[in-house]
Specification:
It is built from six helices and seven strands. Strands 2-1-3-6-7 form a five-stranded parallel β-sheet, with helices on both faces. Strands 4-5 form a two-stranded antiparallel sheet. α2 crosses α3. The longest helix is centred in the last third of the chain and has 26 residues. The termini are far apart. The relative contact order is 0.18.
C-alpha cells in the first residue's frame, strides 16, 4: 500500500475544521467555538466549515493501527491486514491538513482533556503526517502554516486558583501538542470557571464578546493577507 505523507498539495484555502471534544451540544466550550465561527464565517462568507465530533467521528485506534504506524516509522510497507485501518487514520489527518484554521472546543475533564480528544491526537499524530523525526535534531512538526483557535472551559478550575480547586493539565498539554505538530499560531478563548458564581452571567457574556471579537479580528487578518 502506498502511503501519502506530508502532502502539501491538499487544498485548504478558506476552510475551517471544528473539532468538538464535548458530548453536550449545550457545552460552554461548544458555545464559545460556535460564537467564534459565526463571526469568522459571517465576515468571510466563502469559508466552508468541516465539523468533527471526537465522540462519534473517529476510528478506534487498536493493534492494526499501531502495526501500520510502526511500519511507516520503519519505512516498510503497511501490512495488508492493516491497510484499511491506516486509510481511516489518514482520512482524519487529511481533514486537519485540508483546513487553514482548526477550531477546538475543549472542556476540562478531571484536570485534563476528554479521552476522545486524546484519541483524536493519537489518530492524527502520525509520522510523515504530523511530525518527522531526525536522530540528530529530534522532532519537527509538519502541520505548520495553519492557525488554531481553542475554546477552553472548566467547571471549577480557573487560572491562579489554589491547588485544591484544580490544576491545569488541559491547556498546558494541548498547547504543547499543537506546537509539537508545528502549529505556532494559537489563539485561546477561555471561560473558567463555569460553576455559577456571583457574576457568572457577566463572565459568560464577556467571554462571548471575546469569541466574537476574535472571529472578526482573524477574519480581517485573513482578508488582508490575501490582498
Amino acid at each position: 500500500m502506498e502511503v501519502l505523507l506530508n502532502d502539501s498539495t491538499i487544498a485548504r484555502s478558506s476552510r475551517v475544521l471544528l473539532v468538538t471534544a464535548s458530548p453536550r451540544s449545550e457545552s460552554h466550550s461548544v458555545h464559545l467555538a460556535e460564537t467564534f465561527l459565526d463571526a469568522y464565517c459571517g465576515a468571510l462568507p466563502e469559508v466552508t466549515v468541516d465539523r468533527l465530533n471526537t465522540f462519534t467521528d473517529l476510528p478506534a485506534f487498536g493493534a492494526h493501527h499501531v502495526s501500520a504506524k510502526m511500519a511507516v516509522i520503519a519505512r516498510q510497507p503497511v501490512p495488508e491486514d492493516a491497510s484499511r485501518n491506516w486509510a481511516d487514520v489518514l482520512a482524519i489527518a487529511d481533514r486537519v491538513r485540508a483546513a487553514d484554521t482548526v477550531v477546538f472546543a475543549v472542556p476540562m475533564w478531571n484536570g485534563g482533556i476528554p479521552w476522545s480528544l486524546k484519541l483524536f491526537i493519537d489518530v492524527v499524530t502520525q509520522p510523515g503526517v504530523a511530525f518527522s523525526f531526525d536522530p540528530a535534531t529530534g522532532y519537527t512538526g509538519l502541520l505548520g502554516g495553519r492557525r488554531a483557535v481553542v475554546a477552553y472551559t472548566s467547571r471549577v478550575y480557573a487560572p491562579g486558583v489554589p491547588t485544591p480547586f484544580g490544576v491545569d493539565h488541559q491547556s498546558t498539554y494541548f498547547d504543547w501538542w499543537l506546537r509539537y505538530c508545528g502549529i505556532d499560531d494559537v489563539h485561546e478563548l477561555r471561560l473558567q470557571p463555569t460553576f455559577p458564581g456571583d457574576d457568572f452571567d457577566g463572565e459568560q457574556a464577556r467571554a462571548t464578546v471575546r469569541a466574537r471579537d476574535l472571529g472578526l479580528a482573524l477574519a480581517a487578518s485573513t482578508t488582508a493577507a490575501h490582498r
